[in-house]
Amino acid sequence: MRIYFFDVFYSLLHSVAAEYCNNGNFVEASYLLSKHAELTELNDDSLPQIEYGFREMMKIPEELSRKRRIYLLEKAINLCEEACAWERCLVLIDVLIRDIRSLEWHRDLLKKYLQKQIELLDRLSYSTRLPSSFFMVSYHGGGFHEEFRNSVVVYHRPRGETITEFISIQQKKHPDVVFLKQNQNPDELSLDCDKYIKIVKVKQDNTFSLNRKNLNFSNSNEIDFKFQEIGSKLQSTDDSTNVFEYKICSRRNASISNEFLDLWVTKYFIVTDVALPSHIDKTNVVGVTAILLNPIEVALEEVGDRLSILGRGIKEMEKISNQENKFASQQTTMELSGTIDAAVNGGISKYYSFISYDYKWENPAIDIDIVESGKDINTILMKFKVAFQQLIDVAGKAVEMHKIKVSGEMKSLHDHLEGLYVNNIVPKNKEFMHDGINNV
């Protein structure tokens, strides 16, 4: 009976994995195969043939247990490569290399995966990657099947899939529903329909360790949300998390000409039942909470993100500093341009109002909100000024390295950026810092 159970279990597992592959969900298929590999011993036991498939019958031949485990890991690695899920791929390669070394056989296979490990690390460092796509879907109304009715789910989709493409898929599945905008609530609508769907694109949040006991889930505007920050904001090794986020931006005073000084952000955090990516392509949402960021806090987050972006670029250029035939990627050049040049998303100059305190008379509502929320204005300003100074310093290092590693076709752009940094940003920063950081 035990043998029969596992025969059925593995047949079903591989049938589901094959369906995932047919639908482009290669990461989920890889997780299933790696799960089978975990359950397979590294020994010389003879394992029976596995027949599987919902559409057509396929077979895994009878073989030794250790050979099947290696086969499953190799196939799982190939599927991760197909999905460009290179972090997960590296995790599986580590497992495979340990297995091969413990068996003390097949040196050619060991050499192959050691080389693949190097190539993937290289690819992670230098390649422009499409992020994984995650969508939160809420199904409202009694017209849905019980599986979906009044549920909220996060889906993991193939890398690079847009929200437009995902909505199109949902429209085919549910042709008779009304699709809501991100800021719409079905309770506030008077449409003659009992099926509504709201779709929001979310992203993984690997930067915080959330203690669920400290989460108060509520629909009110004032939500208590406590978290502990992980040092240096490290991402999980296997690229999986059960915390996601999305933002809704709003303005309070349209008469303020500088939109950046009236940018208020509600940041929503979604906690799911199962971490994604995983062996499943969707999981239920178990809680949603939010925090409201004032324009200075929004700027502080942006500076932090910009520091991380420049840091990656510097690391990339450091790795190729001794290679004459390798240059900074176009992505690194464009990210540096977006930081320095005011013509590109405002550059560093869009933060000057916070450094000079001009924001106080341009939008007094910021300080009023900070005081009413119980926060300390001086603490927030000091945090921002310290982060801003770090950004100036890191940008300078990036410009310095970029001068050495810039490609020929990007040389004129670099000269423009270097001129802006040396002649505009540095003198302006000295002026602000002389007046400001000790006068907070």
Describe the protein's architecture and organization.
- The protein has helices at 2-22, 26-38, 65-82, 86-103, 107-126, 163-173, 295-319, 330-340, 352-356, 359-362, 365-372, 377-405, 411-435, and strands at 46-47, 50-52, 58-60, 63-64, 133-140, 152-157, 178-180, 196-204, 208-209, 228-229, 241-250, 264-276, 282-293.
- With 440 residues, it is an alpha+beta fold.
- The protein folds into 3 domains: 2-126, Serine Threonine Protein Phosphatase 5, Tetratricopeptide repeat (Alpha Horseshoe), CATH 1.25.40.410; 133-186 and 194-293, no CATH class; 296-439, Methane Monooxygenase Hydroxylase, Chain G, domain 1 (Up-down Bundle).
- The strands form 4 sheets. A 6-stranded antiparallel β-barrel has the order 5-6-13-12-11-8.
- A hairpin with a 5-residue loop joins β2 (50-52) and β3.
- The longest helix has 29 residues, at 377-405.
- It is flat.
Write the layout of secondary structure elements.
Blueprint: H1 2-22, H2 26-38, E1 46-47, E2 50-52, E3 58-60, E4 63-64, H3 65-82, H4 86-103, H5 107-126, E5 133-140, E6 152-157, H6 163-173, E7 178-180, E8 196-204, E9 208-209, E10 228-229, E11 241-250, E12 264-276, E13 282-293, H7 295-319, H8 330-340, H9 352-356, H10 359-362, H11 365-372, H12 377-405, H13 411-435
Parallel strand pairs: 7-8
Antiparallel strand pairs: 1-4, 2-3, 5-6, 5-8, 6-13, 8-11, 9-10, 11-12, 12-13
Count structural domains.
3
Q: How are helices and strands ordered from N to C?
A: HHEEEEHHHEEHEEEEEEEHHHHHHH
Strand order, largest beta sheet: 5-6-13-12-11-8
Strand content: 15-25%
Structural class comes to alpha+beta
pLDDT < 50 runs, ≥5 residues:
209-237
Give the termini separation.
74 Å
* Biggest sheet character: 6 strands, antiparallel, barrel
The radius of gyration over CA amounts to 26 Å
Query: How many beta strands in the DSSP annotation?
Result: 13
What's the average pLDDT? 84
Number of helices: 13
Which shape, going by the Cα principal axes? flat
Helix % is: 40-55%
